[in-house]
């Protein structure tokens, strides 16, 4: 890059000098006012209102701007709030309306302030058969040598009992066979003659509950087959549980649907 020549520098200096002299001869070009943007349209009314208030204060004095000329400011009024919306009334019941207020389901509790009725439940009130009369052939007690029934009948001669269709029969199945009810395989087995009442009764019960004494034993296939051929199902229990199950099922389903054959507790084999 070459440096400017001496002739070029002289021309530039002469032009600058002539331009400054022209400006000095014309004073209106010395100051150039800066143009300002016009006020926005939304500021003009505010400025006009402010100017009007300022001019009125200057003419009438500062007291004229006060309320009534007494120098007191008017009390500030709190802004009014809209009234809260009224709750809508429900016309239909929901699950929340039907929910019980307490967990207590029993009868009315005694007048005791210490009783917490919110958490107490009377289990006796949950018995759906509480008001149902027990059958007359229900077993009240199982003895070593017999049974006590609900109708007052007592069997105390060492016999068992056969409960069929609301009737009670003294039952000694061990006399129908060899005198024993347990075979060489340890299975409970009696002769077919011991079930003569079941073969004669009609309609036949749907279920036969066997109470085999203090313990439970499997019954022989021959005995099970004979009872099943009569169209009767078998349930095997010890004597106490068999009596309790008969009482429940006879109350629920009736004495015609359920039969029981019970051996005394003191009879072994």
From TrEMBL:
Keyword Glycosyltransferase tagged: no
SUPFAM superfamilies: MTH938-like
GO cellular component, as recorded: mitochondrial inner membrane
Keyword terms, alphabetized: Mitochondrion
Primary location: mitochondrion
Cross-referenced Pfam families: DUF498
Protein name, entry field: NADH dehydrogenase [ubiquinone] 1 alpha subcomplex assembly factor 3
CDD domains: Mth938_2P1-like
Residue stretches of biased makeup (Polar residues): 58-67
């Amino acid at each position: 890059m070459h440096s400017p020549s001496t002739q070029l520098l002289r021309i530039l200096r002469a032009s600058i000098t002539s331009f400054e002299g022209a400006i000095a001869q014309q004073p209106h070009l010395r100051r150039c006012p800066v143009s300002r943007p016009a006020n926005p349209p939304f500021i003009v009314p505010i400025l006009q209102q402010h100017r009007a208030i300022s001019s009125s204060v200057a003419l009438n004095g500062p007291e004229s701007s006060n309320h009534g000329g007494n120098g007191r400011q008017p009390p500030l009024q709190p802004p009014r709030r809209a009234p809260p919306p009224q709750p809508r009334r429900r016309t239909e019941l929901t699950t929340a309306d039907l929910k019980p207020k307490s967990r207590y389901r029993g009868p009315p509790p005694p007048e005791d302030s210490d009783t917490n009725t919110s958490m107490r439940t009377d289990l006796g009130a949950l018995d759906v058969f509480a008001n149902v009369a027990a059958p007359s052939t229900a077993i009240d007690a199982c003895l070593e040598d017999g049974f006590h029934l609900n109708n007052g009948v007592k069997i105390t001669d060492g016999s068992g009992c056969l409960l069929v269709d609301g009737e009670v029969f003294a039952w000694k199945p061990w006399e129908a066979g060899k005198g024993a009810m347990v075979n060489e395989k340890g299975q409970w087995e009696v002769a077919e003659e011991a079930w003569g009442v079941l073969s004669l009764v009609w309609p036949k019960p749907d279920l036969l509950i066997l109470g085999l004494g203090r313990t439970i034993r499997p019954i022989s296939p021959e005995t099970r087959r004979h009872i099943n051929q009569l169209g009767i199902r078998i349930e095997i229990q010890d004597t106490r549980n068999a009596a309790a199950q008969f009482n429940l099922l006879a109350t629920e389903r009736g004495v015609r649907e359920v039969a029981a054959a019970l051996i005394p507790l003191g009879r072994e084999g």
